[in-house]
Amino acid sequence: MKLYTTRMAPNPRRVAWVIAEKNIDTVEIVDVNLLAGEHRQPEYRNKFTFGHLPGLELDDGTCITETLAIARYLEALYPELNLFGVDAREQAVIEMWTRRAEIYLANPMMMYVRMTHPALAALEAPQPEVGAYNKTGAEKFMKALDRHLAKSEYLTDRFSIADIVAAVGIDFGRLVKYSPPAEYTHLNRWLSACLSRPAAKAGL
Known about the structure:
50% of the residues lie in helices and 7% in strands. It is built from seven helices and four strands. The relative contact order is 0.15.
């Protein structure tokens, strides 16, 4: 397998984190220069249709994008450390929190950074008002998440893909020197625990 990826970007980091948690050593890494637009070149689009990163190319030529699709494929091949759930109940709960983390936290945080970081102007024109709107939405969810984490160590009963999606989303804010509000003590405790895992450094 070949993983086409780029450092620092949040979606590739999710997959890198999954690979590190599972100690997978059979994936060849192919670096793609995002800021230089290599993901938009015909060589890449011919494989993956869209210029999305990361992209996983299987040995039979099948090409997969979208981080959760790639992570689920890797989970099927390498079931330990389990990240998606071991039975119907756990799978549903993890899926619920993963969707919440992606829609209400990770995506708004990515938009906040993308629309306000000067270096990312190479990808699209800065729109500070759009960035501020998304930051407000992300912090609204963080407040609710702080209440939830007052009674739970992780987003679900144990560490899972939901935590990876949420933690990577928040930590992307470091590019604009963002930290969650200090009063969200439970959220910050959880975030520190996630980022303290050795695998959290993958993809940085």
